[in-house]
């Protein structure tokens, strides 16, 4: 599903949207491709709750480094960057699955082809899940089944993923016999 | 699938458009409306040239919303295999031909925020239909059209008149005016798509340049008018049909197979769509891949060939047909 | 051929019934006594004995009016069942033209389409509609073109955009589906929206199917049959409402199999769209109760055998687990072990 954050040597500008451990993916690329491209790089970063890798990014000395206090704030800034960006700007996203999905959605909504965005998963396997019944989205789901944070139904987390919604599908697991849901299993730590 | 959806048509008008370009207006003999199509589509025209049945693809240049007739433009090429000669020298108003249903291997991306069209010579034809459709659908586009000389170039005056100088730019080789591709590509917003149709060198040039400027391949589209190259004759054995035929100098393998009465699948007849892919059982010689469809690995393996456009350099080949 | 339209329900009291002629025209999906998932596409040309579901490429039957009413109810409760991404407008018009032309051609006593340049007039007698509009101008219709015409056509409709060597489900009207969500799947490409089907991936079925569809030609539509089973003649078996219809699966007893258990057949057809170069994917749903099915002895024997020998992954994926044994037992009474003729039509 993820392409890897390979740096495009032809890009006129590199735009990075990173979350949590995302900077690790970028560090790998600097090892592989050198750091010349950083002079043409915009890095947008939001830390995961646990630890911030801001210092590591600052040490790379990119052209622009901008740290957001939360994901929605980063996505807003990403949208601005994309509105002003020209063809020849390559987009890279790294972090948890939910973050990648949301960042890609901002790009897709602006007519950017998803095949052109480079992505790499870093950090927790926790999922964003859309409840197919009430359409509510629950972030940071680590177990299956889990209880929908909006309508309370017991949901089985399927592997079916929607890029447009940036979420996995959750379907009621005990619809046929309510109350018979198996105990939650931690599947996405 | 042997359902025949080909349409017998009559040539109702021929117009000399430029030095070596003629436009042909075609209507169904049964007077039914022509099928609607999408800008960029082409049809394969079948013409009886004495004992030889020729089949050539031509882009539709008429408006996709004009159901009364199709229009194609043909450039008379000196060194061709004879198809363009036949169209220019032997087809008259009143002649009958057969055309296939439209097929589009060069559609525009509906999500595009802006479309930049690069045309060279007769490569203008698919863009004429495309621009008509884009204008109707209120889409943003601009055309950069390179012609050899003003008298050689077709339609440039009508296009400039219809769409305005801000959207149509003409570059005449003879006047040493060339398309400033790099500066055009360097200043486009995200969501722009590029389309190129013209000589191979022009297409390769634009695509390479775009790639070097960081354009992703999803935003680059091209159509090549590949005609089957000529070459020394060779023998082809058709294993399943149990026939051995000669592929002539000016004949493609597909044409030779059809002349022998064997029904081989095909669609675009230009090496692009993949429909005529055939298994090579054995080959004494080398396969000359002229298509743009097979992957490099498949070409190297020597086990597959696109018979509408590729040839053998050698004596004989055995095909699974 | 004038059709007498039924007044029936696909929810609540479930008054849906097939009349005897409709039973015999049912597009029975099994041509042999076993079933394995396959692409099995064939040209979508008129076929079958006179009156068969295969006669008209877009089929209209006695359930037309009631199905359209059920669709209206579903859309009122959940507007997300009809969606079109912004770039699909040309494809929407292509779809409107196709469905109007095909319904008028197949059933001229019920529908008529008159074109005067881009001034069109569409008459739909069963629903009492007489609409003049400008083709290409959505402001002259009460809904966007796809929603407008699919509120007047039986079956689900997905409009697929072709680009980048792939197919993208970018618009649809989906209210009679067997358990998939348009809201979730809209925007997905071919492999993504087929994600959950078991087994087929390993056989490379989808790679071949995608290649085939990318080359689908104007004027040469294709069709294939898909099938599953439903308890009660409920059209809306969406995942959104799973918690409403899921419990139905527990209510099957040896006595009520004939009335409650239904074979649900999807006649899928695929059409290349001219102006947008997209593909229209029609999923036309037909329901048949077990007690109606066994009135055709060949089908009784065959379906018993198919169901009995079905691979476990398919049983699970099609949601048949709970009531399959009871159904097989009931069907066994109608299977005398005699040989069956090949093909799908009744003897």
How would you describe this structure to a colleague?
The complex is a heterotrimer of chains A (189), B (321) and C (347). Helix content of chain A is 24%, strand content 32%. Chain A contains 4 helices and 12 strands; from the N terminus they run βαβαβαβαββββββββ. The longest helix of chain A is centred in the middle third of the chain and has 14 residues, at 71-84. In chain B, the strands form 3 sheets. In chain B, strands 4-3-6-1-2-5 form a 6-stranded antiparallel sheet, covered by helices on one side. In chain B, strands 9-8-7-10-11 form a 5-stranded parallel sheet, sandwiched between helices. Chain B is of the alpha/beta class. With 347 residues, chain C is α+β, with helices and mostly antiparallel strands. Chain C has a 7-stranded antiparallel sheet with strand order 1-8-9-10-6-7-2. A 3-stranded antiparallel sheet of chain C has the order 3-4-5, covered by helices on one side. The two termini of chain C are 24 Å apart. Chains B and C meet through loops of B and helix 3 and strand 6 of C.
SSE string of chain C, helices as H and strands as E: HEHEHEEEHEEHHHEHHEEHHHH
Q: Roughly what percent helix of chain C?
A: 25-40%
CA(first)-CA(last) distance of chain C: 24 Å
Q: Biggest interface: chains and residue counts?
A: B-C, 27 and 24 residues
Given the structure, what is the number of helices of chain C? 13
SSE topology string of chain A: EHEHEHEHEEEEEEEE
| Uncertain ranges of chain C | none
| Main sheet record of chain C | 7 strands, antiparallel
Global mean pLDDT of chain C: 92
* Strand arrangement across the biggest beta sheet of chain A: 3-2-1-4-5
Distance between the termini of chain A: 19 Å
Within the largest sheet of chain C, what's the order of strands?
1-8-9-10-6-7-2
Most strands sheet of chain A: 5 strands, parallel
The tally of strands of chain A reads 12
Instruction: Report the C-alpha radius of gyration of chain A, rounded.
Output: 18 Å
Q: Over all CA atoms, what is the radius of gyration of chain C?
A: 20 Å
Strand segment count of chain C: 10
Label the structural class of chain C. alpha+beta
């Amino acid at each position: 599903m993820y392409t890897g954050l390979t740096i495009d040597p032809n890009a006129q500008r590199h735009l990075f949207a990173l979350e949590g451990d995302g900077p690790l993916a970028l560090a790998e690329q600097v090892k592989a491709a050198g750091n010349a491209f950083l002079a043409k790089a915009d890095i947008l970063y939001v830390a995961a709750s646990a630890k911030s890798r801001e210092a590591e990014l600052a040490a790379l000395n990119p052209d622009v480094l901008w740290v957001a206090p939360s994901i929605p704030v980063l996505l807003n800034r990403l949208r601005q960057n994309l509105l002003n960006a020209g063809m020849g700007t390559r987009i890279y996203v790294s972090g948890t699955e939910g973050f990648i999905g949301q960042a890609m959605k901002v790009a897709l909504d602006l007519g950017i082809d998803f095949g052109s965005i480079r992505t790499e998963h870093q950090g927790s396997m926790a999922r964003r899940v859309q409840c197919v019944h009430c359409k509510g989205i629950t972030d940071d789901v680590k177990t299956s089944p889990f209880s929908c944070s909006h309508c309370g139904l017991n949901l089985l987390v399927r592997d079916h993923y929607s890029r447009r919604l940036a979420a996995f599908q959750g379907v009621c697991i005990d619809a046929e016999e309510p109350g018979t849901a198996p105990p939650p299993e931690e599947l996405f730590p | 699938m042997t359902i025949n959806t080909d349409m017998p048509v009559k040539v109702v008008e021929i117009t000399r458009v430029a030095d070596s370009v003629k436009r042909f207006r075609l209507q169904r003999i049964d007077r039914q409306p022509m099928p609607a199509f999408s800008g960029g589509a082409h049809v394969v025209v079948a013409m009886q040239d004495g004992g030889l049945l020729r089949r050539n693809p031509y882009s539709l240049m008429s408006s996709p919303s004009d159901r009364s007739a199709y229009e194609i433009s043909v450039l008379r090429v000196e060194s061709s295999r004879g198809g363009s000669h036949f169209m220019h020298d032997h087809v008259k108003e009143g002649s009958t031909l057969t055309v296939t249903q439209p097929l589009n291997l060069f559609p525009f991306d509906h999500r595009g925020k802006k479309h930049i069209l690069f045309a060279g010579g007769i490569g203008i034809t698919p863009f004429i239909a495309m621009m008509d459709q884009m204008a109707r659908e209120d889409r943003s586009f601009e055309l950069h059209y390179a012609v050899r000389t003003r008298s050689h170039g077709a339609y440039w005056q009508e296009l400039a008149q219809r769409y305005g100088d801000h959207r149509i730019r003409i570059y005449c080789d003879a006047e040493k005016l060339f398309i400033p591709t790099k500066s055009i590509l360097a200043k486009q917003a995200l969501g722009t798509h590029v389309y190129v149709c013209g000589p191979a060198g022009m297409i390769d040039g634009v695509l390479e340049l775009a790639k070097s400027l960081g354009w992703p391949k999803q935003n680059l589209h091209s159509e090549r008018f590949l005609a089957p190259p000529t070459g020394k004759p060779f023998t082809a054995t058709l294993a399943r049909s149990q026939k051995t035929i000669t592929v002539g100098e000016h004949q493609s393998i597909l044409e030779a197979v059809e002349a022998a009465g064997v029904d081989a699948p095909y669609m675009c007849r230009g090496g692009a769509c993949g429909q005529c892919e055939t298994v090579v059982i054995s080959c004494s010689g080398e396969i000359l891949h002229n298509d743009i469809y097979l992957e490099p690995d498949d070409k190297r393996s020597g086990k597959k060939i696109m018979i509408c456009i590729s040839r053998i350099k050698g004596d004989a080949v055995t095909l699974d047909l | 051929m004038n059709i007498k339209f039924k007044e029936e329900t696909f929810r609540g009291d479930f008054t849906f019934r097939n009349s005897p002629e409709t039973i015999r025209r049912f597009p029975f999906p099994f041509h042999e006594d076993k079933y394995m998932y396959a692409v099995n596409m064939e040209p979508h040309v008129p076929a079958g004995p006179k009156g068969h579901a295969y006669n008209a490429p877009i089929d209209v039957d006695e359930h037309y009016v009631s199905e359209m009413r059920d669709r209206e109810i579903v859309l009122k409760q959940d507007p997300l069942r009809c969606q079109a991404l912004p770039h699909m407008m040309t494809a929407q018009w292509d779809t409107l033209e196709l469905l109007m032309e095909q319904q008028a051609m197949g059933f001229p006593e019920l529908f008529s389409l008159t074109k005067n340049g881009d001034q069109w007039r569409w008459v739909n007698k069963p629903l009492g509609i007489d609409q003049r509009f400008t083709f290409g101008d959505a402001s002259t219709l009460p809904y966007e073109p796809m929603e407008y015409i699919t509120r007047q056509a039986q079956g689900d409709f997905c409009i697929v955009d072709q680009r980048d060597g792939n197919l993208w489900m970018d618009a649809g009207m989906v209210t009679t589906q067997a358990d998939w969500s348009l809201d979730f799947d809209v925007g997905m490409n071919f492999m993504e929206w087929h994600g959950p089907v078991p087994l087929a991936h390993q056989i490379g079925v989808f790679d071949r199917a995608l290649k085939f569809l990318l080359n689908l030609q104007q004027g040469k539509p294709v069709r294939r049959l898909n099938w599953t089973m439903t308890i009660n003649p409920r059209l809306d078996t969406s995942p959104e409402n799973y918690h409403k219809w899921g419990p139905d699966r527990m209510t099957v007893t040896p006595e009520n199999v004939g009335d409650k258990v239904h074979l649900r057949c999807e006649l899928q057809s695929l059409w290349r769209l001219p102006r947008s170069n997209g593909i229209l994917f029609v999923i036309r749903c037909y329901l048949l109760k077990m007690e109606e099915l066994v009135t055709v002895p060949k089908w009784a024997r065959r379906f018993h055998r198919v169901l009995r020998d079905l691979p476990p992954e398919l049983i699970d994926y099609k949601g048949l687990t709970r009531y399959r044994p009871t159904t097989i037992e009931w069907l066994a009474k109608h299977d005398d072990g005699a040989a069956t003729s090949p093909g799908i039509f009744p003897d």
